Amino acid sequence: MIEFKILKKSKISRARLGLLKTENGVVETPCFAPVATQAAVKTLTSEEVEQTKTQILIANTFHLHLKPGEKIVESAGGLHKFMNWPKPLMTDSGGFQVFSLGFGRDFGTGKILKTKTDSLIRKGQQPKLIKITGGGVFFTSPLNGQKIFLGPRESIKIQESLGADIIFTFDECTAPLADYEYTKNSLARTHRWAEICLKSKKSGQALFGIVQGGKFKDLRIESAKFIGSLPFDGFGIGGEFGDNKKIMAQMIDWVIKELPEEKPRHLLGIGRLEDIAKIIKAGIDTFDCIAPTRFARHGIAFVSEGELDMSKTKFSEDKNPLDKKCSCFVCRNYRRNYINHLFRAGEITALKLLTFHNLYFFNSEIANIREKIKKGKF
RNA sequence: GCGCAGGUGGCAGAGCGGUCAAAUGCAUCAGACUGUAAAUCUGACGCCCUUGUGGCUACGGGGGUUCGAAUCCCUCCCUGCGCA
């Protein structure tokens, strides 16, 4: 079980300062959760992740079900022991894979639409490789074509075996191309699944219900009201976030107003550097995103100036640390020219150094924000 | 000196008479990435412009055969290997 305590509410925004207590430790919120899909933050050991001041991780039900299978994790004593991460853990339900391996893959789109397209996903339409039904989703593993069925009961059962502190309801993350009717229909299904998840859970893990509804205000509000009315331990806000960033904050706003105040809210899959302040001000307590880790592997350092592509030649003679104000071991000990060299030389150390820095930098930025909230300045 | 094999875009390396401004890989440059199929993906990559079934210059140098040559012939230069 978890306990959520709100220490302070901002008077100038919806931001709040809180403590999320779990059996494996306390999370100071607002807080970022790095993504450890396959029970690992890519390039880092769990010990290294701890050194980035990370408080909580999120792993993935779908991927761990495929490999190595929840039985193996369970027999290892659960995810915490399996990956030697003694701190709080979340598992995503597999609902994101309904999108990422479905329409996301078919249309080559992410959760936020970049370019306007005429193609819309209409009610009744199915992705090429997966089949979404009322009872759950038939996946085709992209790895080997294996067929996997995941519904609310299956997802909860797997998540119980994995043993994270916080688990999520099985939902359908809808695509930004989904039209109103598709989204409405999908939402009804996601709501039904949420109730089933709630009923089928036997463990003492905290269960977060996920709000969907796409870009449609009435659906978002309807979803927040419905999910918010159920006895979840907290709430996830998922799905697409519109055609541009301006809409995103507004969409969070629609939802947050409808959710019970005393419970934690997790924003699923959002967290580029530029988003942090906005989403915390919108009232988000925790959020996860692959950006700091994946971008690191693609050469991007998150620093005070913004996102720097450390693989560019312009850094080949730059003797500065990644960020002058950052106190992580990478910034204390290494210079940009070295990291640039590592990238150009294809050395995997480059990926590790940037991953470490990005996480540390993210966590520091958010720690600063917590301080500001405490002082009433955020 | 003789014999053999070669000289192709930044590099490696295909092509061996037209569909070749020239495969592919690497390198380079630019862009993307938001609950991770991602140490990934996309695009550009001879020069010029009015950006096009456009123009120009190109496959070691020079000459030739041919309607047409990176591709065939002659010659020169260079490289590698072998033999003196």
UniProtKB/TrEMBL annotation:
It catalyses: 7-aminomethyl-7-carbaguanine + guanosine(34) in tRNA = 7-aminomethyl-7-carbaguanosine(34) in tRNA + guanine. The keyword Glycoprotein does not apply. Substrate binds at residues 92-96, 171, 212, 239. It holds the Pfam family TGT. Zn(2+) binds at residues 326, 328, 331, 357. One of its GO terms (molecular function) is metal ion binding. Pathway: tRNA modification; tRNA-queuosine biosynthesis. It comes from the Bacteria. Coiled coil: none annotated. GO terms for cellular component: cytosol. InterPro entries: ArchSynthase1/Queuine_TRR (IPR050076), TGT (IPR004803), TGT-like_sf (IPR036511), tRNA_ribo_trans-like (IPR002616). NCBIfam families: Q_tRNA_tgt, tgt_general. Catalyzes the base-exchange of a guanine (G) residue with the queuine precursor 7-aminomethyl-7-deazaguanine (PreQ1) at position 34 (anticodon wobble position) in tRNAs with GU(N) anticodons (tRNA-Asp, -Asn, -His and -Tyr). Catalysis occurs through a double-displacement mechanism. The nucleophile active site attacks the C1' of nucleotide 34 to detach the guanine base from the RNA, forming a covalent enzyme-RNA intermediate. The proton acceptor active site deprotonates the incoming PreQ1, allowing a nucleophilic attack on the C1' of the ribose to form the product. This is Queuine tRNA-ribosyltransferase. It comes from Candidatus Jorgensenbacteria bacterium RIFCSPLOWO2_12_FULL_42_11.
